[in-house]
Amino acid sequence: MEGSGTPVTNLTVEDMHVDVAAGLAGQFYGDTTHPIRGLRLRNVTVAKSAGGWVCRGVDAKSAEFVDVFPPVDAKSGCLAGE
């Protein structure tokens, strides 16, 4: 998902299973003026992908990741304190 200058808030992806992704497991792109706030991934599985998750322009402090595969890791840009 890519930001368009319009604020994106409270975006939830829940109970989703993907067998094979053509590229990365997922990418979320906000922008510096309007970061994505309240991003939540719950019970989300991408069984086979070329890589994990990428977040840019995401308010990591308001993000939540529960039961996500592949796991969201420190290099993703999705976690607070990165």
What does this structure look like?
With 82 residues, this protein is mostly beta strands. The chain is built from no helices and 5 strands. It has strands at 12-20, 24-29, 40-48, 51-56, 64-69. The strands form 2 sheets. A 3-stranded parallel β-sheet has the order 1-3-5, with no helix packed on it. A two-stranded parallel ribbon has the order 2-4. The chain is globular and about 35 Å long. The protein starts with 11 loop residues before the first strand and ends in a 13-residue tail after the last strand. The mean pLDDT is 91.
In short:
This protein has no helices and five strands. The protein has strands at residues 12-20, 24-29, 40-48, 51-56, 64-69.
What are the key terms here?
82 residues, mainly beta, 3-stranded parallel sheet, two-stranded parallel ribbon, 0% helix, 44% strand
Can you lay out the helices and strands and say which pair or pack?
Layout (H helix, E strand, L loop, with lengths): L11 E9 L3 E6 L10 E9 L2 E6 L7 E6 L13
Parallel strand pairs: 1-3, 2-4, 3-5
Which runs of at least 5 residues are low in confidence (pLDDT < 50)?
A: none
Mean of residue pLDDT values: 91
Radius of gyration: 12 Å
Would you report the number of β strands? Answer: 5
Q: Strand order within the widest sheet? A: 1-3-5
The proportion of residues in beta strands is: 35-45%
- Binned, the helix content reads under 10%
Q: Structural class given helices, strands, pairing?
A: mainly beta
What general outline do the C-alpha atoms trace? Answer: globular
Order of helices and strands: EEEEE
Helix count equals: 0
| Quaternary structure of the protein | single chain
Distance between the termini: 20 Å
Question: What does the largest sheet look like?
Answer: 3 strands, parallel
